[in-house]
Design goal:
Elements: H1 3-14, H2 32-35, H3 42-49, H4 53-71, H5 73-84, H6 88-99, H7 106-116, H8 123-130, H9 144-172, H10 176-184, H11 189-200, H12 202-214, H13 222-227, H14 234-237, H15 240-249, H16 254-281
Protein name: ABC transporter permease subunit
Transmembrane segments: 7-24, 61-82, 103-126, 146-172, 193-213, 253-275
Keywords: Cell membrane, Membrane, Transmembrane, Transmembrane helix, Transport
């Protein structure tokens, strides 16, 4: 049963690694990997010396850090709250409503967000004007100061319900007799949540935290590309993935794009290893 998955990983994850050679070549599509001239670390130096380098790295780290600090605890909190809901039907309705956005593509979600924030009959602007909080509509998607909040908020809304399912499954695996014993001892709901539920799912939280830290340079691509259509937002929206697409792929600079991608992968491996080493000291790790 594992063989088909292993074949897929081999074909789509390991065999394409041969393309990493492009990062050290002036790759020519007609000459191929074997005959394109080698240039060493030329493209890496070009990236480090590019005027956009520090801005791209800042945006990547800031957006990833915000997602880690705000987006990571959100599904845990939702799972803890849903676990305390006693009305089964209401609990199922909340679960269904919260995880449905996960199945919507970013094209649909970005269109929904753009419509909601529009200056012309946008629901948010209409609400703010009705409450007399603003006198004129605000063009949220053209103001750099609002972009990070919109991006992080949209991402949380889209994924919080689906991510919470994993934590709810982990909570379901906790022995109910422990809760019964705690209730007999007079423990409140909060204390049972803090001293039983949280330690019970700490292993799952640790694993997802390690993976999140290793993926910190993947600040997003589709969501940013679709939400930051206004060129005014480029200074706060341009991350490594969008930079590779905008400068490398669209300009057919394949070697340059491969070099930037390899740099991102190398840093991600270092971060993943460091996070795993820290988790190992706490008694839990991936390897």
């Amino acid at each position: 049963m594992v063989i088909p998955a292993m074949i897929l990983i081999l074909i789509f994850s390991y065999l394409p690694m041969y393309g990493v050679l492009m990062a050290f070549q002036d790759y020519d599509i007609f000459q191929g990997f074997l005959h394109s001239p080698w240039v060493g670390f030329k493209h890496f130096r070009m990236f480090f010396e590019a005027p956009e380098f520090w801005n791209v790295m800042r945006n990547t780290f800031v957006i990833s850090a915000l997602r880690l600090l705000i987006g990571f605890p959100a599904p845990i909190l939702l799972a803890l709250i849903l676990n305390e809901v006693m009305h089964l039907r209401f609990k199922r309705i909340i679960q269904t409503v919260s995880y449905l956005p996960h199945f919507l593509s970013w094209v649909i979600v970005s269109g929904f967000v753009a419509s909601m924030l529009a200056t012309d009959n946008g629901s948010l602007n209409m609400l703010l004007q009705k409450l007399q909080l603003v006198s004129e509509p605000i063009n949220f998607l053209s103001i750099p100061g609002y972009f990070w909040a919109i991006l992080i908020g949209t991402g949380i809304w889209k994924e919080i319900g689906f991510s919470a399912i994993v934590y709810l499954a982990a909570i379901a695996g906790i022995n109910p007799e422990i809760y019964e014993a705690a209730s007999i001892d007079g423990a409140s709901r909060f204390k049972k949540m803090w001293y039983i539920t949280m330690p019970g799912i700490s292993g799952v939280i640790t694993i997802f935290m390690i993976l999140a830290v290793g993926d910190i340079l993947s600040a997003g691509f589709e969501d940013i590309l679709l939400l930051a259509k206004n060129p005014v937002l480029q200074d706060v929206s341009d991350v490594i993935d969008t930079y590779v697409y905008r400068v490398g792929i669209r300009n057919s600079l394949f070697s340059y794009a491969a070099a930037v991608g390899l740099f991102k992968s190398a840093i991600s491996v270092i971060l993943l290893t460091a996070a795993n080493m820290m988790a190992r000291k706490l008694g839990r790790s991936l390897w």
